[in-house]
Amino acid sequence: MWERKVALSDQDTPVGEDFTPRGTVAIVILFTATLVLLWLSIYLILIARGVTT
Amino acid sequence: MTTLQPQPTYQLTGQEKRFIGLHLVVAIFALAVGSIFGPLQAFEWSGLDLYQYLEPIGLDDYYKGLTAHGVLNALVWTTFFITGFLTLTTIVGLKRPLRYPALNRAGFWLMVVGLVMAAVPILAGWASVLYTFYPPLEASWAFYLGLTFVVVGSWIEGYGFFFTYLAWRKENPDTRTPFITFGGLITMALWQIATLGIAVEILTMLLPFAFGLTSGTDPELGRTFFWFTGHPLVYFWLLPAYISWYGMLPKQAGGKLFSDSLARLAFWLFLLLSVPVGFHHQFVDPGIPTGWKYIHAALTYGVAFPSLLTLFTVVASLEYAAHRRGGSGLFGWIRALPWNDPSVSAQLLAGILFMFGGIGGITNASYDVNLVVHNTAWIPGHFHLTVATAVTLSFMGISYWLVPHLTGKPLWKPRWALIQTWLWFVGMIIFSNAMHVLGLLGAPRRTELGTAPYVPDEWNGHLLRVSIGGAILLVSVTMYVVTMIRTAAQKERVAAGGEVEIPVAESLRDPQLTPLWLDSWRPWIIGTVLLILLAYGPQLVEQISNASLSSPGFGP
Question: Does residue B222 come out as left (phi exceeding 0), alpha (psi in the -120 to 50 range) or beta?
């Protein structure tokens, strides 16, 4: 069942003051790599289809 | 890290709730009607022509349906939802009522009058000009005047927000503007600046033409005016979703906004950069010099920066929340997010698909790629990831807490709502991917492909996927509309003390520590106006001085 979300109080937090979003950095890097690869793939697809000639 | 004490929240009055709720009623009605036409187009593309069955009610025309779909979903659903939502973010953020509520009511009802005025000619077939209403396509004067009223009404609501802010600022000269209000005000400022383009287009070119005062239009100038508005329109849609992603979703996930400063910087940069980029929609227009197109292309890539800031800050806020919920690992924390909350899942799924919308956007902003894909199915494939997912699915998610809050009634069948969000996600992946591929294969957009004699066999499988995705999206949007109606119409009310709260996220650091220049309007407004003058000024002078209102109108 769906449960109403409950905001955690500061006393509950297991996260220290030195929280570093390592997962976020990894996601941004992965996103950037995906962007470059997909962008490049579009060029390759269009060149392969001969749309530049 | 500064620990903040929870601040008392503002309780909306019954009148304020009804006023915001009225916006949602119109928005959801427009979404419901407009969404019927989308799948009809998708089915038509795969050879299933359902329009013939709509002939008795006069809705058997593909382009009439396409116009209704675009106007009702991209313009009406969004504008009414946004003005309603921003009314809430203004009041709740500033913890005070609207300064002039009658002004906002006047704006709202003007929008409603405009909607009716525009809807009648669309449904009657007198305005099958699509939501871009490019001249020389010609529509009834009522369509143009109706759209004008919708825009002016939204301006008036915006003035109401600004007056409320000024009254608050007078009482709180040294306090940082609460983030959700700050984001709403920038959204409205962006809207007021951006819509000057279509205001000038309609008032100086299209309405005089529709009234028979001029003999024709200038299509090139009309498109330039439209895209002055058209691209920032995307950010008018997106920024309210960002307000939720930055300022509300972290609270729903059990965390806080990771960086108030980065969030504000991103909003200012969107204001600064989202207008002077319109020529990237006109790369194939012959009347604009290539150099100016490159300038706008470069500025378009500039908009990618605040988008990346948004990706980082929102995901970091979610990662913080997930760690507080016990999540761990480089990616394992993602599982710890409250995916079983339909409001949260809608926004998370919207964000995931928006990443691919961003990639597609950057790709088709490339000058040479755009020359190839511009008039193809790629483009609607792209904007169904942005306005139809990042925006629409987020707004659906917001309404899963907003409607219960406004009505005092629990969300009807939360599990049903959760399934709805996933169906949208899956349906849009199928639909949008097929549209992108079709675009690369050369399939034209804005075209009744079911009757086209030139469709090659290699398109068929993808056309079928378009209709399968469209069917799933139709099921999803129907579930959403039913959920909203049943939530509002049910007799059951939430128990005392169990009211659904408005999720306003605190910032990890005290917002008072955010630099003052990130809460100061003057430099950013001056910069925005200057950049627009530099990027658009010379070309507008050139095009206006050489305008030729000589192109006769035509309709389907």
Answer: alpha
User: Per the CB < 8 Å rule, is A23 touching B326?
Assistant: no
Alpha carbons B33 and B27: distance in angstroms, whole number: 10
Domain encompassing residue B325 = 14-545
**B484 located within any domain:** yes
Cα–Cα distance list, B189 to A33, B401, B518, B521 (Å):
34, 27, 15, 10
A7 contacts B359? CB cut-off 8 A: no
pLDDT at B506 over 60: yes
Contact status of A38 with chain B (Cβ, < 8 Å): yes
On whether the pTM is more than 0.90, the answer is yes
Say what the alpha-carbon torsion angle B214, B215, B218, B222 is, to the nearest 10 degrees: 50
**Domains: count for chain B:** 1
Q: How many CB pairs under 8 A join A and B?
A: 90
Distance from CA of A19 to the nearest CA of B (A): 8
A8 in B contact zone (CB under 8 Å): yes
Of B445, B465, B480, B536, the catalytic one is B445
Is B8 a member of any domain? no
CA dist., res. B220 & res. B548, Å (int): 10
CATH of the domain at B55: 1.20.210.10
B555 is a domain residue? no
Of the candidates B264, B384, B405, B465, the residue annotated as catalytic is B384
pLDDT tens profile B356-376: 999 999 998 888 899 899 999
Residue B58 pLDDT level (bands cut at 50, 70, 90): confident
B448 by DSSP, 3-state: which?
coil
Cis bond leading into B136, ω under 30°? yes
Q: How does pLDDT run across B158-175, given as a tens digit for each residue? A: 999 999 999 999 999 999
Q: How high is the pLDDT of residue A15?
A: 64
On whether residue B44 sits in a domain, the answer given is: yes
pLDDT tens sequence across A23-53: 999 999 999 999 999 999 999 998 888 876 5
The tokens for B417 are 């709502």
Cα B313 to Cα B255: distance, rounded to the nearest angstrom: 13
- ipTM of this predicted complex? 0.92
Choose from A6, A34, A35 for mutation: most chain B CBs within 10 A: A35
Is B144 tagged catalytic? no
Q: Is A53 on the interface with B (CB under 8 A)?
A: no
